[in-house]
Amino acid sequence: xxxxxxxxxxxxxxxxxxxxxxxxxxxxxPRYLHQIMITEGIITSKSSYVCTGCLQFYxxxxxxxxxxxxxxxISTGDVVNRLHREILNGNVQDKDLCILAYDIGKSQCxxxxxxxxxxxxxxxxLKSYDAEQWLDRQNKxxxxxxxxxxxxxxxxxxxxxxxxxxxxxxxxxxxxxxPISFAVGLCVYFLTGCKSAIKILSTCIPCGSYExxxxxxxxxxxxxxxxxxxxxxxxxxxxxxxxxxxxxxxxHNKIPLSIITNVIxxxxxxxxxxxxxxxxxxxxxxxx
Length: 288
Fold this sequence. Notes:
By secondary structure, the protein is mostly helical. It is built from 13 helices and four strands. The protein has a two-stranded antiparallel sheet with strand order 1-2. A two-stranded antiparallel ribbon has the order 3-4.
């Protein structure tokens, strides 16, 4: 029993319909189109049939007028230069530009979703962070696309480009933490002290979760402070009681309460040693 005939085109489900045509025997399939379909991976060299729907689609996509006898000698650079001119002259339709844009984005997705810059790496570089150096380490193709979008606006700053790049990286790395976004989340937390604010912010920008922020702050607070040699240190602290508002009246109602402690360490004048001279205490406090 002979095997069932079917269209050998890889995109048959999208464009296929109609009758089947023998790839080799039929004269309805031009030789140049047959070679293009094999080269582009649309069909294989062993494919026997192509349906009329797929054939019509690829004949319109690769018209014979665009194929010359010397196509085998055309380099990739020549194709890119010609396509560049056609795009600038507005001769390429939007649907074709969409295909190119999608293919370019898909080709760079794996490169942008890599782990070349981990979260710990970006956190430790907050003090010495440089926006231009950070941009230089990012995907060049994506940066050129952004530069093309902003080419008409001379007021675009480097920080704005960094923010756009971080948003694109957020799509490729859903759990990634970017430096500018993390700094924004850190400032928001210090200004508000609100857990909900960080949760809402983390859904919009790659600043990390509330747990990431607290863990980072916890690692910074475990570093012991070194007492300076040859001088005394005066420590001041202030406890601030924060009481939450509760407008509902109910049985066994508990009002949220927290204590915030601010600690300040002041190094005294090297000339005064409080531990050795009692008279230096008043003089040191007067100087401060």
